[in-house]
Amino acid sequence: MVKVIKAKGLTTLALVLLITGSIDSIRNLPVTALFGSSLIFFFIFSAVVLLIPVALVSAELASTYTEHSGIYAWVKLAFGEKAGFFAIWLQWINTIVWYPTILSFIAGILAYLINPSLAQNKWYLIGVILIVFWGLTFLNLKGLRIAAWFTSFCVVLGFIIPLILIMTLAIIWILQHHPLQIQFNVHSIFPALNHAQNWISLTAIMTSFLGMELATVHVKKVDNPSKTFPRALFFSVLVILITMMAGSLAIAITLPHNQIQLVSGIMQEFSLFFKAYHLNWFVPVIALMLFMGSLGEMINWIISPARGLLEAGRNGYLPAIFLKENDKGVASNLLITQAILVSILCLIFLLMPSVNGFYWLLTDLSTQLYMIMYVFLFFSAWTIKLKMPILPNTFKIPGGKLGMLVVCLLGIMGSSITIVVGFFPPANINVGGVWHYETMFISGMLFMCLPAAGFYYYKYCSTRSLIEIPVGDLEEDPIN
Q1: For a surface tag, which of 46, 66, 102, 217 has the fewest beta carbons within 10 Å of its beta carbon?
Q2: Is residue 472 predicted with pLDDT exceeding 60?
Q3: Three-class SS of residue 423?
Q4: Residue 5 — φ and ψ, nearest 5°?
Q5: Which domains does the chain have, with CATH numbers?
């Protein structure tokens, strides 16, 4: 295997694998495949209004501010500490909601090695989620270098190879004139945009593009970041857009949309192909490969938001117990807290009428939290562009201030549309009715955002306590 980590730090190839491994997930293919040939339009639209704007903004900010990077540092620079903390809180709490979806996908893969029907068993899924997430948490406690190597290995074995395989098998399927489940014409590719259900598909596709800015928190561990980050982000955008669109179409042309399972859909697809081509013996092999790829996808998501929250916590927003780092420089107590919260969140499984309904609810909730954070990102990028001096030898979005304005407006538009359509459940997934879904969704949004207010209050009380300490006491014990 190609060595991707030099002694000095992360290289362009290491970053591309880290970014694509975090975002470009074969897990998302069944969700986006539900929307048939119209996914072509929505993928291109989503790339223009989200994926590319996030990549361009992240590239300019990361290459300019190489000492401190990431959503907390950027929003703090533009609007101050409080706004920066809320932005990093949204990114961190979003991952708490998102983890059960990728973990349920992992459980669905493992089910094919035991009994495929287990993929729809809530208790089985909860058990696997807890075991896998706690295992990955302890791996991350070993530090970034081990995690980055593990991610690179998993991306190649469990994502790149299976994705190439699924696209190749789909091409063979078409060439052998097997029946196609979707049509490719103007009316199907360009959906009627006045129908709300067509826009709901945008949530699933936007979810496939979240996290482009995540790797920027490792800016100090990157060789020549002002050049490496923009280069890595450029290649990552190309890989993500092409592979996600092609992989989704591979599923859409072979499986009827009403038979696609969101948790185990990718194994449905491979099982269909292997049965048609008399390769059933390969099912457990591909299941193990996908299992490894999913583990690699989670590594950066577990450690990066926690690192950003740790930086905000050092400014007084978190109690000292959460600021503890181990000898590898990892926020160990935050990662343990993260694992506990994910374990509690798994109980939502018991409140939803179907596994698909649970999967969609958490996917939707996670996406909306992240979109609010992206609104902060784009406003911050534009504010920084206006306030800060232009530095030489850094990546700049073409067009100067006008170019940055256009990019930020596109990003704000894409994020806002996704937030609005996220309040409406899809008609083809059992979510227990519109009112049940709305109650769960809105309650979830409030439950995830309100703790930030508690941490604001904690800092206020801490600051006030320091101010009220008598001057004489400080002189008697200058250390305290």
Answers
A1: 66
A2: no
A3: coil
A4: -120, 115
A5: 12-476 (1.20.1740.10)
Do residues 311 and 66 touch, judged by C-beta distance below 8 A?
no
41, 190 Cβ separation under 8 angstroms: yes
Return the axis-axis angle of helices 283-312 and 265-276, rounded to nearest 10°: 160
Amino acid of residue 52: I
Residue located via tokens 């256009």: 406
Q: What amino acid is encoded at 314 in this protein?
A: R
Residue with tokens 């609810």: 361
Helical ranges in 65-121 per DSSP H: 71-79, 81-114
Residue 274 near residue 283 (C-beta atoms within 8 A): yes
156: nearest Cα among 273, 18, 336, 261: 18
Q: Quick count: other Cβ atoms within 10 Å of Cβ 97? A: 26
Structure tokens, 463: 């600051």
pLDDT tier at 5, thresholds 50, 70, 90: very low
pLDDT tens digits, 402-445: 999 999 999 999 999 888 888 877 776 666 777 878 888 888 88
Express each pLDDT in 165-216 by its tens digit: 999 999 999 999 888 888 888 777 877 666 666 677 677 788 778 877 766 6
Reference 250, options 237, 265, 234; nearest CA is 265
Asked if 32 and 244 touch (Cβ cutoff 8 Å), the reply is yes
Question: Which residue is associated with the tokens 């990077």?
Answer: 69
